[in-house]
Every structure is written in structure tokens, then in C-alpha cells.
Amino acid sequence: MSNITNRVLSIQSHVVHGYVGNKSAVFPLQVLGFEVDNINSVQFSNHTGYKNGFKGQVLNEKELADVFSGLVANNLHCLYTHLLTGYVGNPTFLREIANILKTLRSVNASLVYVCDPVMGDDGIMYVPKELLPIYRDEIIPLADIITPNQYEVELLTEKCIKTERDAWNAIEWFHDRGVKTVAISSSELGESDSLLALVSHKDGSKSQRCKMTIPKQGNGIRFTGTGDLFASLFLAHTSLTGFDICATLERTIASLQAVITKTLTYIPDDVKAGKTSVTSAQRELKIVQSKREIENPEVVLRCSKI
């Protein structure tokens, strides 16, 4: 058995209350046996969807570089096997992440970079538009694994996705830029009551493709932090399965669906029935309560190999 410890440097947002960004990603990785060192791109009281707003601080690129320089000074940057990035709010911060990645790869050429290009959803872009060309031209070519949603794929590739064929064609755009593994975490290509996830892996002459139909839960309730959770679980299971992409997707979705199911048990029945509006607090994922389902995912939904 290898004595190498999987250690992730996770650069994402942080909230004091709730589960998005690092709060959504760190615990699942730890439960699955990964050491996680996290740098918080922002520290907010709660996520930005709460009706009375939020308070907090935003880390700038100089502060990010300063924190990372402390890791380098103590040779701690040599320990990382993975870099995971999520929400970033400004262009210069995103470019500093690229600098950090290059430093990490200078001491570990096999480091795996998992990029969740958090830019928007449902046709709405919620980061500055200046981030898009930086992701497209500077960050994506550095990534080993990318986990965008359908809207983010459309933004990056400038391709409209109306059919499954469109999605696979868009995935090839990422492969052409050197990304080995592309996981579209959710798309609206399924039926009205389901989502479709698609994953493609290309490494030299080896290639794998698979897809999965995922039933929607919660009668239209939208949960925050699910994309962050997907990226962290996908990172873990690619490593734990030796890049068996079908098994990775099945385990990732098994845990994700279990977390949503658990969360729904805490939401009042009148809210689930649509009689009362759901609050932001009620939509917070019950990740800690789902520890067992994260640690030992019970695979019910199977993917189809393409």
C-alpha cells in the first residue's frame, strides 16, 4: 500500500453559517481520508442569497500570495497532491491561482488540478465578466479535471447546448485544450423531472465516456453548495477508484443525492408541498448529518458507458 497521503489545497469561498465553497468541500474530503488545507477567497457571514444580505471580507491577490509564500517558506507546498479551486470574485485573484499552480507543479509534476469554474447558473452570470476570458485562455489549459455546469460550459466554449450531441461536442473543446477529465455536473438535457450528467476522460490513447440520468428532488427547491460538493466528491473518487470514471460518477452522485434527501427531511412539509416559500436557511445542505452516506456511498443510480 502506498504511504503517500492525499493532501488537497482548496482555494474557495468560506461562510460562517451554511454550506457553500470550502464549507461544502472540506468535510466530505476529510471523511474520505484526504488531508485538506483551505485558503478562503472570501469570509462571509452567510452565502449571498439570504434576503438580509451578508457581511464579511474578501481576500485580495496580494494576501493570497502572502499566505501561500508562508507555505513555500516552510516547504509545505511540496506536500500537495491536488489543487481544488471554486468561486473566485476578481480577475487578479484568479491569475494568482495560476501562479500558485505553476509553483505547486514545479515540485510535484503529477499534482492534479481540479477546477470548478464557478461563474453562473440558469443563464445568469454572477461573477465579473472579466473572469471569463481568463478562465478560457489561462486557467482551463492548466486543469486536469473541470466540473462546470451546462451554463458555464456554454460560456466557456461559446457553444449553445440544446442536445446531448452538442454537449459531447462542447466537451471535446476542453479536451482539445489539454483537460483530461470533463464532468458536466448538471445539464437540463434530461426529462422535466431529471438532470443529465456527462463525463469524459481522455489520457493518451485511453478514453472513457459515461452519462447518468439524475432524478430531481424537492419539488423545485434549489439547493446551494451542490456544485462545490460535487467537485470535492469527484476529486476524491477519481483518486480512490484510480480514475474509473463510471465508478467515480456513480459514487459522487450517490453521496450527492443522499445529502439532498437528508436535507429534505429537515424541511417542513408545507414548504416541500409548495404552500410556503423555502428560506435560504432551510436550503442549507445537511452535510455533517450525511457523514455515513459520504463515507460509504450506496450506489443506486448507474451510469451508461458511451
Structure write-up:
The protein is an alpha/beta fold and 306 residues long. It has one domain (7-305): UDP-N-acetylmuramoyl-L-alanine:D-glutamate ligase, CATH 3.40.1190. 37% of the residues lie in helices and 20% in strands. The protein contains ten helices and twelve strands. The protein has helices spanning 22-31, 61-73, 91-107, 131-139, 150-157, 164-176, 226-240, 245-264, 269-272, 291-295, and strands spanning 7-15, 35-44, 56-58, 82-85, 112-115, 120-121, 124-125, 145-146, 181-184, 194-203, 206-215, 304-305. The strands form two sheets. It has a ten-stranded mixed sheet with strand order 3-2-1-4-5-8-9-10-11-12, sandwiched between helices. Strands 6-7 form a two-stranded antiparallel sheet. Helix 3 (91-107) links the parallel strand 4 and strand 5. The radius of gyration is 18 Å and the shape is globular. The two termini are 32 Å apart. The mean pLDDT is 94.
Short description:
Helix content is 37%, strand content 20%. The protein is of the alpha/beta class and 306 residues long.
Helices and strands in order:
Layout: E1 7-15, H1 22-31, E2 35-44, E3 56-58, H2 61-73, E4 82-85, H3 91-107, E5 112-115, E6 120-121, E7 124-125, H4 131-139, E8 145-146, H5 150-157, H6 164-176, E9 181-184, E10 194-203, E11 206-215, H7 226-240, H8 245-264, H9 269-272, H10 291-295, E12 304-305
Parallel strand pairs: 1-2, 1-4, 4-5, 5-8, 8-9
Antiparallel strand pairs: 2-3, 6-7, 9-10, 10-11, 11-12
Helix pairs in contact: 1-7, 2-3, 3-4, 5-6, 7-8
Q: Spans with pLDDT under 50 lasting ≥5 residues? A: none
State the CATH class: Alpha Beta
Described by strand count, sense and barrel closure, the largest sheet is:
10 strands, mixed
Please provide the count of β strands. 12
Helix content: 25-40%
Give the averaged pLDDT, no decimals: 94
CATH topology: UDP-N-acetylmuramoyl-L-alanine:D-glutamate ligase
Shape: globular
